[in-house]
Request: fold
Amino acid sequence: MPKRFRLTRRFPVAMTEDGYRKLRGFAHEAGLDEGEALSFLFENFDNIIHEDKLTRRLRAFNSELEARKR
Reply:
């Protein structure tokens, strides 16, 4: 029997415009709302990511973060 899909947590999230635009596009393409799309991505995170690429992109993001906050 499939797990019942319940959104049990709500929390305020700050996102960049680019990140939110990509989330909305992904959600629309998948036929989901933004919350469902985030749940899908995080529930399946280990199967979706490429670990080497994630590490490189995270390093690059962190190095640019302070400059982007200004």
The CA atoms of residues 37 and 55 lie 22 Å apart. The radius of gyration is 15 Å. Helices lie at 17-30, 34-43, 45-48, 51-69.
